[in-house]
Amino acid sequence: FRPLDRWRLKHIPGPAQLWLVGNLPGFAKYGDFEFFHRLHKQYGNVFKVWALGNNVVAASPELCRQILLQNQLRFPVGNLFAGEMHEFESANILFHQKLDKVRAMRNAWHPMSYSGSLENFVGLMHRAADKAVQRLSAVIDSKEAINAHMVLSAMTIQVIAAAAFGVDVSDPDTVLRELNGTPYTVAELLKDMRMVFKVTNNPNCIYTQLGLLLPFAAPLWRLLANVFPNENHAKALDLRTRLVPFAKALVADQTAAVAEQDDTIKAFQPGGDGTKRKGVAAGSFIDILVRSKQHATMSLTDTEIANQVYLMLLAGFETTANALSFTVYCLAQHPDKAEKLAAEIHSQPENPDYTTLTEGFPYTDACIREGMRLYPPGTIVGRVAAKDMDLGGYKVPKGTNLIGPIYAIHHDESVWPQAEAFLPERHLSDDAVGAPTCPHAWLGFGEGARSCVGSRLALLEAKLALVHLFRNLSFRLTPGQVPLKLLATITLGPKEGVWVTVHERKAAANLAAEP
Ligand code: HEM
């Protein structure tokens, strides 16, 4: 495929490529994160690799930053949906190919990260974290192990559902709306949200692979996917038939409410009684986006708004749950660090407000950053070269796919001394053991004009959850989880969960002393 591109990259080192499948066997054998890590050790900071196209990899912090700051578009991905869903799918910011539209979408996301907006979510996060603590406490001091990853996913899914839709999701039986003549409940919404992640751009789906490999032939893949849908595509379509109309209906309601300047709406009214208007909570993401329509630089269509909300569900819960679970895993392995964390938590008020949370928990922050360094939920970032560029002395032509291998950079001994050790202190001082040898070495949320728009929300939620979890509880890993089995799909997650026994914190010192 694309022999001319291959020829133009022939001066760049890289592993031998097999006919037709290139380096795909390496990805299949190791997973992308580990494969890039190995190639980095073998070929240095710039190398090429063939995975559904030619890619050049920038594997040092400086070069990775260079590709992220100089280029703004990601690789195109074929749109596999037809009709109304085609239009919906085209509004996805991740792989949009028009920069002015991408900027308008990002402008619309920004208010969600303002302190005032985040402050609004703190109460909701406290309640969700309390619930997670209750679920974990149910097995205190019993021999029963619990999958912390499941509990934490349930927590982040609740927070994102409420933050995105402004919907109260505390009662699973609440009917949110009539959709296609049948009631759509909170339980179904949460189930669909879990499914969104599994079926969207699923790398194991043949049509997704074809769309990545040959995006210009998207009409053909679309035709095949719709005439001969495989299981993944059928599920992706099925859940869109509920989530997309649901998001669109809320957008329409809120548009009408904002037009009427009806700021009295405070909560979603399930079913409606004819006198109360349905609506979403003020300050929720839908509300923020709908209000952004009044500004020319942010203006999005209703379909584009619905797609951003849909993406918030996709990007917003699994990533945060994985980051948190990895941090809990590391802390369970290192009781001394967990003690230090608990000491910081006890030095602060029990239910800290937004300002205390952002300013008063440096060690908690450092634990999350260190968990995300060792196990970054986003293992790679991608861009397309906007023009010919010099990358570490190699000429890279315009249009080349560029990859920043976050996991490989985070595990590079020359950048992070004692790279495999869990050392939160390295994020607190330049003199600490294990402090990075160069700036910008931590890339958990990407960098530059396309970096993660949800990073502040994610960090706030993760921090607040740790504060609740480690105030009164401590965790021990059940045997057989070191090293942790990992699963790399769209994100990096724990393959079989993170299984722990749960104990009251006062018992932690004794536990640490146990063999
Ligand atoms: C710990 C949790 C999270 C991690 C590790 C994470 C990681 C990332 C990474 C690595 C990128 C790509 C950045 C780049 O290309 O430079 C990204 C993009 C993005 N993230 Fe996150 N993310 C997290 C949470 C969230 C949350 C909570 C939301 C939404 C509320 C979100 C929404 C997005 C969006 C919309 C983009 C695309 C931005 C664009 O295309 O311009 N993420 N994220």
Automatic annotation (TrEMBL):
It holds the Pfam family p450. GO terms for molecular function: heme binding; iron ion binding; monooxygenase activity; oxidoreductase activity, acting on paired donors, with incorporation or reduction of molecular oxygen. Keywords: Heme, Iron, Metal-binding, Monooxygenase, Oxidoreductase, Signal. The keyword Iron applies. Its cofactor is heme. Transmembrane segments: none annotated. It comes from the Eukaryota. Heme binds at C452. Belongs to the cytochrome P450 family. PANTHER family: THROMBOXANE-A SYNTHASE (PTHR24301:SF2). This is Cytochrome P450.
